[in-house]
Amino acid sequence: MNRCLYEAYRTYIMHDRKMQVQNVYSVLGGSTHDVLEKIMNGEATEADLLPTIQNDLDKLDMLGVQFPKGRDGSDSIRENWITDMTHFCNTYKAPKGDFETEQFFLYKTPHDIYLQGYIDLIRKNKDGTVDIYDYKTSSMYKGKDVKEHGRQLIIYALALEQQGYKVRNVGWIFLKYCEVRYMGYKTARSKSKSKISQIVERRNIAKDLSKQFQDKLRERGYTDIDIDFIISDALDSNSVPEEIADEFTIVPCVVKYNLDDDTRSETISYIENTVNNWESLSRKEQDYPHISFTKTLKNGKEVDDTFFCRCLCGYQNSCPHLYEYLDKDKDKDDDDIDLFA
Questions:
Q1: Is the distance from CB of 48 to CB of 32 less than 8 angstroms?
Q2: What are phi and psi of 274, to 5 degrees?
Q3: Do both 43 and 105 map to the same domain?
Q4: What region does 116 belong to: left with phi over 0, alpha with psi -120 to 50, or beta?
Q5: Radius of gyration of the chain from Cα atoms?
Q6: Pair 255, 174: CB distance under 8 Å
Q7: pLDDT averaged over 10-residue windows placed end to end, the chain, 341 residues
Q8: 340 falls within a domain
């Protein structure tokens, strides 16, 4: 409703579900969530993760549902996602403790607006509090996206608090990333080692930590020639060298979100403002404008912001606004061609 009113109009006013199409992220994210839930409930094991994803990738290929292309027209986005998630599937170990999965909630705001949904994972702590976690197969949030997606976690907390729970922490488990823990020097001037935690994308473990690997190998007496060979093998396999494997611990990436009176209040206001704005609209299509497109400079190139419309929107194949924009953009590119270049 706050992203694209036209999409909301077709979904909630026209109920145009038959024209909606799937996207790779929702399908793969959904099936991954399902297996993780079954693992926590003892209905599946970690060994079921990778076959599930591979099976869904095959189905999506047969249906012609594709990952978006990279800026250079390659399949880099698909390949990177598969590499990240393959590493997750091959290394994931379910957390220990007292958990509930997919718990239904019904939350009532101070002005009697109701929201309902399901919470991925709730951890019951020994002190009587609970922690709330949401699995994410997406890239890590940055900038304004942190707050946008953080509201989901706050809603979960508000709902459980309304039921009498005391919520201690809320956060995301980003499956494409991992946290690497090791002892090292925090700065070049540090005189003693301390515990260091570094978050890296799974496909870049060896690349991002090669300097730390070299330091550890040098401390253990390996020569520069030996280190070159060991690091080369580590980069090829994207793994911690076995010679220093005991120095590094790799765990899933958990990112906490701030839960306080300010984020609670802001989320409640956001909910109520959204609903009030929606209910103030008529049922006429002109009251539901499409998202506006803008161009931004990235790496010296002009890039449009149609990613959501082209890759995530359920009406990507039938949106007249998107078609019109892409046609105009194509015509502009044709006009800019240098005849003698």
A1: no
A2: -65, -50
A3: no
A4: beta
A5: 24
A6: yes
A7: 94 89 92 97 96 96 88 90 96 94 96 96 97 96 94 98 97 98 81 90 96 95 96 96 96 97 98 96 93 74 78 90 80 52 46
A8: no
